[in-house]
Amino acid sequence: MCISVGLVLLLLKLGAPLGRLFELLLPLAVCTIVLSFLLSIFLYARSFSVSSDALAPGGNTGNHLYDFFIGRELNPRIQNFDLKYFCELRPGLIGWVVINLGLLMKEVELRGSPSLAMILVNGFQLLYVGDALWNEEAVLSTMDIVHDGFGFMLVFGDLVWVPFAYSLQASFLVVHPQALSMLGAAVIIALNGMGYYIFRSSNSQKNQFRRDPNHPNVSKLRTIPTASGKKLLVSGWWGFVRHPNYLGDLLMALAWSLPCGFSHLLPYFYVTYFTVLLIHREARDERQCKLKYGASWDSYCKQVPYRIFPYIY
Ligand SMILES: NC(=O)C1=CN([C@@H]2O[C@H](COP(=O)(O)OP(=O)(O)OC[C@H]3O[C@@H](n4cnc5c(N)ncnc54)[C@H](OP(=O)(O)O)[C@@H]3O)[C@@H](O)[C@H]2O)C=CC1
Ligand SMILES: CC(C)CCC[C@@H](C)[C@H]1CC=C2C3=C(CC[C@@]21C)[C@@]1(C)CC[C@H](O)C(C)(C)[C@@H]1CC3
């Protein structure tokens, strides 16, 4: 992240036309799609030369198309370099905020200064990416690393979908400038702040509990024992709903769209897609947790009946 920040600051100091990124989005996206296909083909081919215990449970149906998409190998490595762990965060997230900055510079070229809406979108998403990179080790406990094979879906998701689909709001604002009142901005900032607080504190609470259940920050929380020896949190954020981190993430997703106003649906694509993704992801996780924890998970679901939205779902 530091190298990227240094390079971007150097480019800005040298007067590099970062705003050109706006015109280069499509060719860059096409090149990244080609790269993701090539990487996926390499990963699929090499998966037939590794031992069976290196394969992901869900990506070995024998259906070549499905296995190519989902991914056969769980954690492909070249020496000690873990390809999935690297791709999950850095290239896509850093590419996302660099594109956002280029779009902000394009707005400066067109209108002399960045709009309040563009500043909010850039700031919110820079916070999200900075948080992810600062807490990089937390990704090790996510489903993508623990359960899912590294196939075209995740390769494309990491390298193409995140930088080019997640920067849609900034792209929209270059073409459709939006006037935003200070009151409107204050409400949106409060919404993003609340979402970030729920997202960060619930993820940190679970990750802390999984690292050290006796840590003072989590040792007083109520838990449910399981046959596997692991315990399930049933108070704190994880007693509020079963995926409080998703709730916080979705509130932020809405806060990223609101600065774009209500004249177009495009800026709301991300929060819509993301809601579908997290509902599907939550159902997948429920199945895995039911298998892992059996009756203990049933007891958890009885005590914490709502999945993401309290008193709704
Ligand atoms: N911006 C984006 O595009 C995306 C963002 N995300 C974000 O990534 C973050 C991680 O999400 P995700 O990877 O889906 O999984 P989670 O971080 O929600 O982790 C799910 C795992 O947590 C453990 N767990 C669940 N309930 C409890 C409990 N009560 N007590 C203790 N442990 C529990 C289980 O694993 P175990 O018990 O084995 O430890 C479960 O499999 C979320 O904040 C999500 O919003 C996710 C996808 C896309
Ligand atoms: C293209 C497909 C239809 C969907 C692809 C899904 C991927 C884009 C997401 C799957 C899990 C992700 C995570 C993040 C980004 C999106 C993908 C790759 C994440 C790195 C975002 C930042 C968070 O702080 C995180 C917890 C580190 C996320 C981990 C999961």
Features:
313 residues; mainly alpha; two-stranded antiparallel ribbon; 12 helices; 4 strands; binds NADPH dihydro-nicotinamide-adenine-dinucleotide phosphate; binds ligand LPDX5YLU; EC 1.3.1.70; steroid biosynthesis; endoplasmic reticulum; membrane
Brief sketch in words of this structure:
With 313 residues, this protein is mainly alpha-helical. It has helices at residues 2-13, 21-46, 64-70, 83-111, 116-134, 143-146, 152-165, 168-175, 182-211, 244-257, 269-293, 295-303, and strands spanning 77-78, 81-82, 223-225, 231-233.
Could you walk me through the main structural features you see in this protein, from its secondary elements to its overall organization?
This protein has helices at 2-13, 21-46, 64-70, 83-111, 116-134, 143-146, 152-165, 168-175, 182-211, 244-257, 269-293, 295-303; strands spanning 77-78, 81-82, 223-225, 231-233. By secondary structure, the chain is mainly alpha-helical. It folds into two domains: 17-179, no CATH class; 180-313, no CATH class. A hairpin with a 2-residue loop joins strand 1 and strand 2 (81-82). Helix 4 (83-111) runs parallel beside helix 8. The chain is globular and about 65 Å long. The mean pLDDT is 94. The protein binds NADPH dihydro-nicotinamide-adenine-dinucleotide phosphate and the ligand CC(C)CCC[C@@H](C)[C@H]1CC=C2C3=C(CC[C@@]21C)[C@@]1(C)CC[C@H](O)C(C)(C)[C@@H]1CC3. Belongs to the ERG4/ERG24 family. GO terms for molecular function: Delta14-sterol reductase activity. Keywords: Cholesterol biosynthesis, Cholesterol metabolism, Endoplasmic reticulum, Lipid biosynthesis, Lipid metabolism, Membrane, Oxidoreductase, Steroid biosynthesis, Steroid metabolism, Sterol biosynthesis, Sterol metabolism, Transmembrane, Transmembrane helix. This is Delta(14)-sterol reductase TM7SF2.
